């Protein structure tokens, strides 16, 4: 990190420059944007000057006990932060300069011999340095916005306190509660909403601490238009004796605090009317953290080209189909697959060494952690293709049909056909021509190829930006239009949009992107009037087939069930069964119906355009929208036809009823 002198730091603030660095080795400063709020962690530091560490009576553990470790991490996602590096045992930033240096603290002598006047002076000067910089930042913010808010974050030991104590304690003794009362109450209410794993959480005002520290006093004394909120967090996120963190609690705490910082800051802006934008996302920096760029680059380099279907699709599907029919359906096909070119052990080891912990925004950090975990599971899936372990890994990766999924499938399968079915009279050559024509309509350039190496009627090879069409395809007009809206309107659209993103994780795919992509693709068929009951029944049959496979019925039994119990044509039954049994038990296919259900519900509640920036997931739509508003993610260049204003959506009352009843 950049080393800064006091002069350089103050000059940069005066000029309104964005910067990050360490000031005189005493504290870290980060200014990504000159918003109207500052976050401080003045007791996070643990350092002692070398001349003092030799004469300190307290060991590392003793000092750490009364310091506030991890509070710097809790504010790291915010745009303006000041994080102390020096231990409060050298000088306490929450005490006035004249008595900031301890001789005795918490009943323990600190020094082997009394400090000399020069040693005390050096510590006092570092104390004063911090407040000169803080003062400069607040002056700049008040000049820009009229008002300023300072979150003064601390933590406290609770084991020695016999009574029940709050998770969060706000000290207001030095605050002008008459003027700032609404903001304080909102901060208290917001903190109370932070949920932590396996812990009851509550917030209180002046229950354990009263906010008598120097930082709040300094702010009130020098700035009439600035509110400092002294906030103590109970050390439930760590072992307060050893100093070891509880990672799950700490991560949830950081995530929760990010939300409440922004919510309270927005409330403050409405109450105090600082001259600033009022959107939540505009309170955060639009700059992409260099650590995030580095992580994203390494992750993409490691994981690019790992396409599930390119490994899962059988190479001998045509041969095994002939053999299956020749044996009168009493044969379980023996599929062969592409060999894995990746060393799975090295891959996993490299994957888990990626520097995700360096990303300061906890929400984005967690998203990348989820991606890393997902790829670790995916590589387990690949290494077990063709073995008994494949089904187990597929269940880990995709899950299995729930009772709700099965009920929806059965409901649709029992529905009576209400429309005459068109004859399938369009072959692969004409399908290719129509896809090329549709690509022109979208303004997208990619390849369209005919192949005999896929099971599906059509699919997209994302890495090659190619639409693959099954050589033996026979579809009618409605089915062809549905394929175009499905494969081109969603899968190719998101592939092309991902190319414009600075962050390549949207090319790789977020966790849950398969079920999201397929849900959006079926939704596109529905919204354009090209989804019919026959198609819905096919999706329902996939759920049934997956359930049969999970329940350990063999290929032949599932095929016969589809033919005899559900009147599925034999070629279609083979395709459905092969999709599910490939690899050793591929459970993905049940997700199409579930994805449609969730896509439709979300479409009825909120805009979905954020899901088209790349290979995204329903789970991360809120974060994607935030990153888009911050300028970290580009809005999609291409959208499916049904989201374009000029397209008139098709209504089908019968299908609407069936879907609303089934899902």
Would you state the CATH class of the largest domain? Alpha Beta
Net shape? elongated
Q: Could you describe the largest sheet, including whether it forms a barrel?
A: 9 strands, mixed
Number of domains: 3
CATH T-level topology of the largest domain: Aminopeptidase
Briefly note the structural class of the backbone: alpha/beta
Number of strands: 14
In percent terms, what proportion of residues is strand?
5-15%
Work out the helicity level. Answer: 40-55%
What is the quaternary state of this protein? single chain
List segments where confidence is low: pLDDT < 50 over at least 5 consecutive residues: none
In round numbers, the mean pLDDT is 93
CATH H-level superfamily title of the largest domain: Zn-dependent exopeptidases
Strands of the widest sheet, in order across it, are: 1-2-3-5-4-8-11-9-10
Task: Set out the fold topology.
Blueprint: E1 3-4, H1 6-15, E2 19-23, E3 27-31, E4 37-41, H2 50-53, H3 60-66, H4 71-75, E5 80-84, E6 104-105, E7 108-109, H5 117-145, E8 148-156, E9 168-170, H6 177-192, E10 203-205, H7 214-222, E11 226-234, H8 247-272, H9 290-303, H10 308-312, H11 317-326, H12 344-351, H13 362-383, H14 389-398, H15 403-414, H16 428-442, E12 447-451, E13 458-461, E14 466-470, H17 477-499, H18 505-508, H19 513-527, H20 533-550, H21 555-566, H22 570-581, H23 591-603, H24 621-629, H25 653-662
Parallel strand pairs: 1-2, 4-5, 4-8, 8-11, 9-10, 12-14
Antiparallel strand pairs: 2-3, 3-5, 6-7, 9-11, 13-14
Helix pairs in contact: 1-5, 6-8, 9-13, 12-13, 13-14, 15-20, 15-25, 16-17, 17-19, 19-23, 20-21, 20-22, 21-22
